[in-house]
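Lab notebook, design round three. We kept the backbone fixed and only want residue identities now. Task for the bench partner: fill in a sequence for the structure below.
Input structure tokens:
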């Protein structure tokens, strides 16, 4: 069985989420990668060094410069003539491309897989992660998105062949207007080893940054937020952790002034150690916390930051 993994990259760097998708693909068969973009030689070189990869297909063309799913999906669909399964990380862009590929191939997509049981059978979360479904597909070609936290990241150590492939061109269905990208020195949420997250209790954007940022800086942590904090404008959208935000599983997750709603837990409950700071001792977050501090965050967090 041959698998094709879409390589997510940005600014000439391969994104970590790809590595988990490679591990998932290696459980199905021979792993081929697709690097689509413009000026992506360095990404292709990095991709070829991933352990267990047999071949890297490179489509270097302006049509793929901004990763528009409307252009990438037909390219994948064409390559699927020679592959049995397509895997993309379940990231925002991966989730944009994979359903289009499934539609073009006229097969069902299986989303957010947690494990590969056999060539046709996968597990995936349902009901915001409260139940795990085992799904068997009878489609000849599989289209899967992969939950990054459920698979180890593939290591370095490969020396795959790199092969240039022809572009399928600009389909003219969408065009790139611009991107507003929040520049941050902090680790990206999905790959951060420590995350400090703030909730509605922070009360304002100023207080969010005044309380959360210094602790995150001391710990070298990424910063996350609950949806309530994002909706209130205390933190940007890409900080959101949860069912409709990012799924994270760092070594340490510090939830500050976050109640622990089921939709928030869906995004962070697989973290290795969960620390919760909340003034309500009955807050649901304490049911999943390994370490809990009951008290006023505006007193506890600055004290903690100072002592670190
Ligand atoms: P609250 O629930 O208001 O909790 C604030 C907490 O702060 C309380 O526990 C309170 O005791 C504590 N507190 C208050 N003051 C202090 C203080 N001074 N010191 C210490 N503690 C204090 N939510 C997400 O986070 N991510 C998602 O992806 C997400 N997706 C959703 C999808 C759907 C379809 C729906 C319906 C909801 C979703 N939500 C999501 C929203 C979720 O249901 C909750 O509303 C949200 O998580 C609550 O955020 P919060 O814990 O910051 O706020």
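Proposed sequence:
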């Amino acid at each position: 069985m041959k698998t094709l993994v879409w390589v997510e990259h940005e600014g000439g760097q391969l994104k970590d989420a790809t590595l988990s998708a490679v591990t998932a693909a290696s459980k199905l068969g021979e792993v081929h990668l697709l690097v689509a973009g413009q000026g992506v030689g360095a990404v292709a070189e990095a991709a070829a060094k991933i352990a267990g990869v047999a071949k890297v297909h490179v489509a270097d063309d302006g049509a793929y410069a901004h990763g528009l799913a409307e252009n990438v999906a037909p390219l994948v669909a064409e390559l699927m003539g020679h592959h049995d399964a397509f895997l993309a990380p379940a990231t925002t862009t991966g989730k944009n491309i994979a359903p289009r590929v499934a539609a073009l191939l006229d097969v069902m997509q299986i989303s957010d897989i947690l494990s590969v049981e056999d060539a046709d059978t996968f597990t995936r979360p349902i009901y915001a992660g409260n139940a795990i479904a085992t799904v068997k597909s009878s489609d000849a070609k599989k289209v899967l998105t992969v939950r990054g936290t459920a698979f180890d990241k593939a290591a370095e150590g490969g020396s795959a062949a790199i092969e240039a492939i022809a572009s399928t061109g600009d389909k003219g269905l969408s065009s790139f207007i611009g991107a507003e990208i929040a520049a941050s020195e902090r680790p990206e949420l999905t790959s951060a080893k420590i995350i400090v997250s703030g909730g509605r209790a922070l009360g304002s954007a100023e207080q969010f940054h005044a309380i959360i940022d210094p602790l995150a800086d001391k710990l070298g942590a990424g910063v996350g937020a609950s949806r309530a904090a994002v909706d209130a404008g205390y933190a940007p959208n890409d900080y959101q952790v949860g069912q409709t935000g990012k799924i994270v599983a760092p070594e340490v997750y510090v939830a500050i002034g976050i109640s622990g709603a089921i939709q928030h837990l869906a995004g962070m409950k697989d973290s290795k150690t969960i620390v919760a700071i909340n003034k309500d001792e009955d807050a649901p977050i304490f049911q999943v916390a390994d370490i809990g501090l009951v008290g006023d965050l505006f007193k506890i967090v600055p004290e903690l930051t100072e002592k670190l």
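Keep this in mind before ordering anything: The mean pLDDT is 96.
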